[in-house]
Please model this.
Amino acid sequence: MPRESLPARRRRAAQILAELERHYPDAATELNHRNPFQLLIATILSAQATDVSVNAATPALFARYPDAAALAQSMPAEVAPYIQRIGLYRSKAKNIVATARQLVARHGGEVPDDFAALLALPGVGRKTANVVLANAFGRPAIAVDTHVGRLARRLGFSQHHHPDKVELELAALFPRERWIFVHHALILHGRRVCLARKPNCAGCALAPWCPSREG
Ligand code: SF4
Model:
């Protein structure tokens, strides 16, 4: 079957955006944080882990290591016990210490408000860099995690599995000033309704515009 035209996808995207705005008006990151440093570290820790598990660990972690300078002086083995309930905690302990050291060495201990500089940090890929830019600095960005990628494919907005390609396709469909919202709203919809294994199409507000709806 030929793919829907870009204008037709954009029209559907506008209707879906309106529906997401109705259902998730306050969509925002569910990672607890008080500043860009905490958000960066929490986002690195959240890879292949739940926000709940990260939020359970970060209060004690940030009490002990309140800023990049403090974390930079530690060793990964000292940090690991604070995050051991989070998946892949050993490699994440290495990454967050290495990231803190680079923040101190290259950015005066601050988180850079710059995509390329963020991407150069250990453990930081496009998704993490976009999350930080969007939530810490209010920059338009669409971070593609597992939920956003799944929703983009089910909604017929992308046929790709590579997050970078999904990001570009979503960015072409939604207004730039709504990118941050779209990212958060799709995550919430993926967590609450369009579940990975069993999407609740019967209870889905997006069903009238979704080519993957069942039933
Ligand atoms: S209709 Fe079904 S597949 Fe489409 S977004 Fe809703 S829950 Fe997901």
Remarks:
- The pocket of iron/sulfur cluster is lined by residues 154-155, 193-194, 199-201, 204, 206-207, 210, 212-213 (CB under 6 Å).
- The mean pLDDT is 96.
- The chain has eleven helices and no strands.
- The domain at 36-137 is CATH 1.10.340.30 (Endonuclease III; domain 1).
